[in-house]
Design a protein that fits this description.
With 440 residues, the protein is α/β, with parallel strands linked by helices. It has 16 helices and 16 strands. Helix 5 packs across helix 6. It is globular and about 70 Å long.
Length: 440
């Protein structure tokens, strides 16, 4: 008779509290619905369109980077082999070429030494949060609604987040200032504000230029750091876009979080942080914040995969360090999708019909997302019905708020990036079928 050892059972209340947080379940539910209804058209994922990727170009980019190492930098074959196959510099190997691209594309003059090349932008968020937030009195400010990646990271690190309501054009500096004052009165230290100024996830809003200047002034006055995340800035109707906060930053108040997921391809998992602030030790010596982030990275991911860096570096070299120009076909594609979606909604739900039904939506100038508001709850139950009965999937906006009662209950996020224009039009038709049935 075989002996069966007793199975180890771990008590849920002895694990980290974040694992029981509903925030950690939101993407799992969306993925589950998507897998159960594979024929549905999904406005859910904020992924780039895969038809824009060319598999055969990966080898070309690796070759371009290898030539750069040998011809431009004078590396020997042994040194090239080491650089591509070994762990490498913790802060990254392509910091020089990334800095050149930032100068060309965003007018950000970053010292390459101030860059940390990360495993996606998500690691950059973790590094910045872990370094900046000293103890439980430090608070992270975020817009409401907000990208769940940053709030999830803060939850895992036991960092308190306070949501600042977002208006039609993004965060309001006056509301932010009042929030900062209230937190200080309660004995807290508002440490940093996370925001996506350009076509934010989930709302698609874009922060006006005067507001950007006001935020920078306020950050200096209130001793606040700004964590600027910019994955969507290239994808505009005009092709130029507004200057980033970092490009306008003259007092090093902005820590810039960058990613090549949308502008190159997400599978490489390469992002970066521009952390050019000085850190002064008790003895008066100074280092760059980037070097402090590197200490943490060395204990988290050790380094960013050399081959992934080489592919991205090769792309930057191939396109003469100008990704904005290289992304023009992608920007045109997403703009066409946005136009198709807005035109389809306008045609299928003309003003008099949608006003009578209490339905409305915003009209972003770029990016991947727009927000649609209903007179009925856009909750998981409606999403399930939408996928099952109408063959269309979207994301409840309540996922992006701190709790179900704080906002988003009557809104859905529509992502237009992962579909063809034909699918967008058909998806809009199916969505309107759901709205007519649910909002009648």
């Amino acid at each position: 008779m075989s002996h069966v050892s007793p199975t180890t059972v771990l008590a849920a209340d002895e694990l980290h509290g974040s694992l029981g947080d509903p925030l950690m379940e939101v993407m799992n539910f969306l993925n589950e619905v998507t897998s159960r209804y594979p024929q549905a058209i999904s406005f859910g994922p904020g992924r780039p369109y895969e038809g824009l990727f060319e598999v055969e170009r990966i080898g070309d980019y690796l070759d371009a980077y290898t030539r750069h190492l040998t011809e431009d930098l004078g590396r020997t074959p042994d040194e090239v082999r080491t650089q591509l196959f070994q762990y490498g510099r913790t802060n990254g190997q392509i910091h020089e070429v990334v800095a050149r691209a930032l100068r060309n594309d965003e007018d950000i003059d970053a010292d390459p030494a101030s860059l940390v090349v990360t495993v996606g932008c998500q690691e950059g968020m973790f590094l910045a949060l872990r370094a900046l937030f000293r103890d439980s009195s430090d608070v992270l400010l975020v817009s409401s609604p907000c990208y769940v990646g940053i709030t999830g990271a803060a939850r895992l690190l036991d960092i308190e987040t306070v949501h600042v309501p977002e208006g039609e054009h993004g965060i309001d500096p006056d509301v932010l200032r009042r929030t900062v004052a209230d937190l200080r009165a309660a004995g807290k230290r508002p440490r940093a504000l996370y925001l996506v100024p350009d076509f934010s996830n989930p709302t698609g809003t874009c922060l006006p230029l005067p507001t950007r200047h006001r935020l920078l002034d306020m950050a200096e006055e209130e001793d606040l750091l700004l964590l600027e995340d910019n994955p969507y800035g290239f994808f505009t109707r005009t092709g130029t876009g507004l200057p980033t906060l970092k490009a306008l930053d003259r007092r090093r108040r902005v820590i810039y979080l960058g990613s090549f997921a949308k502008t190159c391809f997400p599978g490489a998992r390469v992002g970066y942080v521009v952390a050019d602030q000085h850190v002064q030790a008790a003895d008066g010596s100074r280092t760059l914040l980037a070097d402090e982030l590197s200490k943490i990275k060395g204990m988290v991911t050790v380094n960013t995969p050399a081959l992934s860096q080489a592919v991205i570096g090769g792309m930057l070299l191939t396109h003469d360090f100008r990704l904005r120009e290289a992304n023009k076909p992608a920007a045109d594609f997403y703009q066409e999708n946005l136009k198709v979606l807005l035109d389809s909604l306008d045609r299928l739900l003309p003003p008099e019909r949608r006003e009578a039904a209490g339905i409305h939506w915003n009209s972003p100038e770029g990016g991947f997302f727009l927000t649609l508001t209903l007179p009925v709850p856009a909750d998981n139950a409606l999403l399930e019905e939408s996928a099952r009965e109408h063959g269309v999937i979207w994301t409840p906006m309540s996922y992006f708020y701190p709790d179900p009662d704080s906002g988003g209950r009557y809104q859905m996020r529509l992502s237009l990036s992962y579909l063809t224009p034909t699918q967008v039009a058909e998806g809009a038709s199916r969505l309107v079928g759901l709205l007519e049935r649910s909002c009648a």
